[in-house]
Design goal:
heterotrimer, A mainly alpha (329), B mainly alpha (321), C alpha/beta (294), A: 329 residues, mainly alpha, MetI-like fold, 2 domains, 14 helices, C: 294 residues, alpha/beta, six-stranded mixed beta sheet, four-stranded antiparallel beta sheet, 10 helices, 10 strands, 34% helix, globular
């Protein structure tokens, strides 16, 4: 229970930090985003009233009339109410609506790809670490090659080979545009088909990290006394590997999930760009191009919230798997 | 019969091809990684690409010179063909490699200095300072890096995005992971007896850190530096690819940006978009392989596992012969 | 090659015979950790294996069970297990699956420092249970549960502890659990490597009494490895003394104490200070009694 509270507290602090960063960034950097934003708004044919100006000023700064603390407070209450402003590139849709529409795509893509990469990497790493020097173990350095490959370049290569030359998969989009989105089998199949290459990119790019970490930890764990005891007890080799070695070796990988997820999220943003995948990453980049600051900030906050949430879940999982953490707190 | 004069030195069991007695290695030499095929490959890759980035720009032609041949494939004269404006791709690659390496190195150093400060110094101080630094690292760790960099870059107008701005931003978003690792390592070293002995005997704090703690952290520090450089090169490439990199700079990422915008992919101009990514990948792999060997120093069990297997295998073969 | 036979061959049958066993560590300079060790373990006896650190006693114990890892390599010799049912097993020649079945069922081990010998992420019960499952598939879950509880009670640990994790137990309790685990399959031989070294003296005494009591009850042979010779003098039937990889003396505890033949054994015996009696061979510098009184 103590552990749970500590973790929740930490993530609350982290989220608050992200909110504050979000608040400070436009105010610290040169340029007046509010003016640019309003100019674009009027271009789109919206009427700019003093209230609009005030709303944006609260979000982005530039309203030098009010003291900073006041602006901060208004900003926080707005966020709490779920008001992230209006998007200009998708005018007149509010930012929350744009995010809600694109969020499922990224969640599914990144979620499935990360889980797949983690499971694959950990399992292969365990096998490679169990038999150091085997043929599988000698493949490990080549996975470092994969880990060093920039995601977006890998996407380009995959698109070139699999989409253009071999024409096995589509190179753009999230689904076949002639279909209407909905929970029907045809749409889901189409989404899976279009999502295959982006997912493959993420899996191939991130599996190396998991594999290497797990393998090194396995080699370390194999020299522990409890593994020796397990072998001496005459347990079948597979059981020793799974229940004694791997169960302990996997702990640092779970603990380091935060770092891994950070890389995956970063990589997926760029991957979405290459594939014009309608996820949240594309929205972020589109927002940057269009100076749609409200959307930019909204997406950043949302991504941060999602990453923090995922990390919280993993931390709690760690607390379940390693009984010593409950004792320590 | 009870043997009253047992033998005391190892004799006769040694296989005939045993090595002659060697002097024990000097202590500092034990800190260096042993040469393995992996390490050799890694060093070759890194050195090769570094030399390429360093010297090739002096030897190739002008990367910006426009010809009116349009998009052409590799030929005898232009090894990697041309861009859609007829620019020499190979020349561009040379300058881009130099640019990427430059920024990779700068950010790597900056990030490592930051992580060393927050990780090592904080752990050494202990108490409230340590908790505060640790909290700061963890918060920065969980806030996703690239989206933050994108947001910051997005707010900075193009003209102000210089090399140093981008370098600082990248360093600020990537130091946290290393700091955590360094802190864990420092904590384990700090609690060892020889550090306590040094403190008790009145050594000044900076001296304790420099003389007792740092030498034990060197392998980990080196490993984290290598990671930082890899992350920096990849991060900068991603930023530039998105068009958010340092303005006026020429890196492997910007090359890919222009390739993407020049429709290299739909036009099948593999010679334009494949090489830059390949250079990044090979450089990163080389660094990762070097890190592999550093890992063996940090965790000697990995090295022992490898050595022992090899020696036992050889001995069994020799004994069976 | 050095051969050592005991002066008084006991009347009991032999359960393990080690003949001329040599174990080499293939490091940069190969080191022979065990040189031509030859000894017999009699059924139901407590054989003490004594010597200073690095003399090879642990290496010998591991080699007998084939638990040695690279760089250790068995260079020569044989280990034969004489089963109760009359068959002889060449331990060094066993195939993987046969070795797996042999281990723990015929010969079990208690390792040095039980702090780390138990898997930290699984309960005690789970670790006891999987031993049973791996060897005896005839028992159902309830029968296994009963067996585990029974064996814990035998060593003086509350059966409720089956649900605990290792870090929730004290050092002494963990060592008792290890002993219980070693007894699960009623082996004929138990090898104990410094089982009480890391514990305080009171707990040490309790555990030693348990071991002797269990041996009397169940009749298994014990190889008790330690550097603490006086302890062996108390509990062992026979004692083997090792020096730099060789067994230099092997005799009953009584004879060894009264009339040790090897100079090293005598030196070892004399190194332990006695609570009463003359100072003996324990070399000590410093002021004599008269000087202190002045």
């Amino acid at each position: 229970m103590n552990y749970l509270l500590r973790k929740l507290g930490f993530y609350a602090v982290a989220f608050w930090a992200a909110l504050t960063l979000n608040f400070l960034i436009p105010r610290l950097l040169p340029g007046d985003p509010v003016d640019i934003l309003l100019a674009k708004l009027s271009q789109r044919g919206a009427t700019v009233t003093p209230e609009t100006r005030k709303a944006y000023a609260t979000l982005l700064g530039g309203d030098t009339g009010q003291p900073l603390i006041q602006q901060y407070w208004t900003y926080l209450t707005n966020i709490a109410r779920g008001d992230l402003g209006t998007s200009i590139s998708y005018f007149p849709a509010p930012v929350t609506e744009v995010i809600a529409a694109s969020m499922p795509w990224t969640l599914v893509l990144v979620g499935i790809a990360t889980v797949l990469a983690a499971v694959l990497g950990v399992v292969l790493g365990a096998i490679a670490g169990w038999r150091p020097g085997s043929w599988l173990d000698s493949l490990v350095p080549s996975t470092t090659l994969l880990a060093a490959v920039p995601y977006f370049w890998l996407s380009l290569v995959l698109v070139y080979v699999l989409a253009r030359q071999l024409e096995l998969f589509p190179s753009q989009g999230g689904y076949d545009v002639v279909l209407t989105p909905g929970w029907n089998l045809e749409f889901i199949r189409s989404a899976a088909y279009y999502g295959f290459l982006p997912a493959l990119t993420i899996v191939v790019g991130s599996v190396g990290g998991w594999l290497l970490g797990m393998r090194n930890m396995m080699v370390s764990t194999l020299s522990e006394d409890y593994v020796l005891t397990a072998r001496a007890k005459g347990l079948p080799a597979r059981q020793v590997m799974r229940n004694y070695a791997a169960r302990n070796a996997v702990l640092p990988s779970i603990a380091g999930f935060a770092i891994a997820l950070g890389f995956v999220v970063s990589g997926s943003v760029v991957t979405e760009q290459v594939f014009s995948y309608p996820g949240i990453g594309s929205r972020l980049l589109g927002a940057v191009t269009n100076n749609d600051y409200a959307l930019m900030q909204g997406v950043f906050l949302f991504i941060t919230l999602a990453v923090l949430g995922a990390n919280l879940v993993v931390d709690l999982l760690y607390g379940l798997i390693d009984p010593r953490t409950r004792a320590r707190s | 019969m009870t043997n009253t004069q047992p033998l005391t030195e190892p004799v006769a069991e040694r296989p005939p091809q045993a090595r002659p007695a060697t002097r024990p290695k000097a202590a500092w030499r034990l800190m260096l990684p042993t040469m393995t095929p992996w390490l050799a490959t890694g060093l070759t890759l890194v050195a090769g690409i570094a030399l390429f980035g360093l010297l090739a720009p002096l030897l190739v032609g002008d990367p910006d010179r426009i010809r009116d041949v349009g998009l052409t494939g590799p030929s005898g004269e232009l090894w990697l063909g041309t861009t859609q404006t007829g620019q020499d791709v190979f020349a561009q690659l040379a300058f881009a490699t130099r640019g990427s390496l430059q920024i990779g190195l700068i950010v790597g150093v900056l990030a490592t200095v930051l992580s060393a400060f927050f990780g090592i110094y904080g752990a050494y101080l202990g108490g409230v300072a340590d908790e505060a630094f640790s909290l700061l690292s963890n918060v920065f760790l969980v806030i996703p890096g690239l989206p933050l960099v994108i947001v910051i870059s997005g707010f900075v107008p193009r003209e102000s995005r210089g090399l140093w701005t981008i370098a600082v931003v990248l360093a600020l978003t990537s130091w946290a992971a290393s700091a955590r690792v360094l802190r864990a390592q420092t904590l384990s070293v700090r609690n060892r007896d020889y550090v306590a002995a040094a403190k008790l005997s009145g050594e000044r704090p900076w001296r304790v850190i420099a003389v007792e703690i740092l030498p034990n952290l060197l392998p980990v520090l080196a490993s984290q530096f290598v990671f930082a450089v890899i992350a920096a090169v990849l991060g900068e490439a991603g930023l530039s690819f998105l068009g958010l990199g340092a303005s006026g700079s020429s890196t492997l990422g910007t090359m890919l940006f222009y390739a993407q915008n020049g429709f290299a992919l739909p036009l099948g101009a593999w010679w334009w978009f494949a090489p830059p990514g390949l250079v990044i990948a090979l450089f990163g792999t080389g660094l990762a392989l070097i890190n592999f060997s550093i890992d063996e120093i940090v965790d000697p069990k990995l090295k022992n596992a490898r050595l022992h297997r090899r020696r036992t295998r050889l001995a069994a073969k020799g004994g069976a012969a | 090659m050095s051969a050592t036979t005991d002066r008084h061959a006991g009347p009991g049958a032999v359960v393990v015979s080690v003949r001329d066993l040599s174990v080499v560590y293939e490091t940069e300079q190969p080191v022979t950790a065990v040189k031509g060790a030859t000894l017999d373990l009699h059924r139901g006896e407590i054989l003490g294996l004594a010597g200073e650190s690095g003399c090879g006693k642990t290496t010998l114990a591991y080699a007998v069970n084939r638990l040695h890892q690279p760089p250790a390599r068995i260079a020569s010799g044989s280990v034969t297990f004489h089963d109760r049912d009359g068959s002889d097993v060449d331990v060094l020649a066993l195939a993987d699956e046969e070795l797996r079945r042999f281990r723990w069922a015929k010969l079990s081990m208690v390792f040095q420092g039980a702090m780390n010998a138990l898997n930290p992420v699984r309960t005690i019960g789970a670790q006891l249970d999987d031993t049973l499952r791996a060897h005896d598939t005839s028992l159902d879950r309830r029968a296994r549960r009963e067996r585990c509880a029974d064996v814990l009670t035998r060593v003086g640990v509350d059966p409720g502890r089956l649900r605990s994790y290792p870090h929730e137990l004290s050092g002494g309790m963990r060592q008792r659990v290890m002993i219980a685990m070693a007894m699960l399959l009623e082996p004929q031989v138990m090898i104990m490597d410094e089982p009480t070294t890391a514990l305080d003296v009171v707990v040490q005494r309790d555990i030693l009494r348990e071991i002797v009591r269990l041996r009397d009850e169940l009749g298994f042979a014990v190889v008790f490895i330690t550097h603490d010779l006086p302890l062996l003098l108390e509990i062992s039937d026979r004692i083997a003394v090792m020096l730099r990889g060789e067994v230099v003396e092997l005799d009953t505890a009584q004879n060894l104490y009264r009339n040790a033949s090897h100079p090293y054994t005598r030196k070892l015996l004399g190194s332990f200070p006695s609570l009463h009696g003359e100072r003996g061979g324990f070399v000590r510098t410093g002021p004599t009694d008269e000087e202190e009184l002045r």
